[in-house]
Design a protein that fits this description.
Lipocalin; 2 domains; 11% helix; XAC2610_dom; mainly beta; globular; 6-stranded antiparallel beta sheet
Amino acid sequence: MKKNIICLLLGISTLGLAQKNFVIKDGSNRFDAKIAVENCEGDTCSGKGTISLIDKKSKQIFQTLSSDDLYFYLNKNQQPSVNVIQLYNEQSPLIFDDFNFDGSEDIAVRNGNQSSYGGPSYDVYVYNSTKNQYVISKELTALAYENLGMFQTDHERKRISTFAKSGCCWHITTEYAVIPKKGLQKVYELEEDAQGGEFVKVTTRNLIKNKWVNKTKKYKMDDYYKD
């Protein structure tokens, strides 16, 4: 009798921690994504996970990617979001985008909370047309670990933007260009330093013809942050 009670209690305690499976159909024009994650409790999932990319036309598995900690939240319908990048809020477990601006869709997979201030970190895969598969990009992955969560892309300007900070009052936005067959090149910085209290010192740095052009200006705190 006692053994049965113990088993029942163990079953109840692990009920919310069973492996969960989800299907995302609206993240990519090319693929559906089947997500399997180790643990889900309440509205939070985490632990080892796999992402199977299912070709929408053939219905076959194109490639399976893995994560040591596929950490994400569930919405009110108990489903994960996709392609959401909010600086201090929701960042999805999967981000489909053309990160290197070569015309092919790439994918970023959430892997824990190892970016600055315990924020989301991502393994970033780019499509390799020669191998016909996704391969890890060390440069792009580093950006998604060393800054405040996932970077953002500007397709019109073909720039990647990262965000970093130190405490409440120092922020920096950095932009990179993707140089074909060479990699990333930093081309712009916006540094906002409000550590002095009354004023904000704003410094911009632009790479123009392989030379950095720097400009610094001070603003009153209330004027600069009036929005």
